[in-house]
Amino acid sequence: MQYTKGQIKRVILARFDDGDVLLDELKKLAKKERISAGVLVLIGALREGHVVTGPKRPKIPPKPHWETFKDAWEVVGIGTIFKGQKGPEIHIHGTLGKGKKTLSGCIRKDSKVFLLIEAIIFELKGIKARKNLDPKTGLKLLKFI
Predict the structure, then answer these.
(1) Which end of the chain, N or C, is more open, meaning fewer C-beta atoms within 10 Å of its C-beta?
(2) Domain assignment present for 6
(3) pLDDT in tens, 12-36
(4) Is the dihedral of CA 63, 48, 46, 74 positive or negative?
């Protein structure tokens, strides 16, 4: 295990609107506000999108098991924001529901907002960390600097 300590610097409340591509908008906000480390929580709905619901098999490097959804699903999620090699790296895990169906996993690609998503971002102070591509796993892993 590795760890570091810090404090909450700022709290940002954001609303994303119908049709917004959630991850793109979060990256824009992180760039604009110069967030280098943060935690976020969100609630709302996604019109359509893609979720990784685990690896196909428990092997390293993992091959993702993809699920696609459409027709507006409710969502609650938690995630992180860290600097990466090409700008902010957003990592969100969420649970989505529609009727009696549920999906839980990593929200990815061009998942689009339905009506709205409210997000609260807790920017962290004193945390020196980045997300870098790990050649062994093929994942962007948290590295303390």
Answers:
(1) N
(2) no
(3) 999 999 999 999 999 999 999 999 9
(4) negative
pLDDT score, position 135: 92
Answer yes or no: is 69 within a domain.
yes
| CB 88, CB 80: distance < 8 Å | no
CATH number at residue 82: 3.30.1330.80
Structural domain total, the chain: 1
pLDDT tens per residue, range 107-129: 999 999 999 999 999 999 999 99
Structural domain harbouring 78: 12-144
pLDDT at 94 (0 to 100)? 98
* CB 19, CB 49: distance < 8 Å: no
For residue 4, tell me if it sits in a domain: no
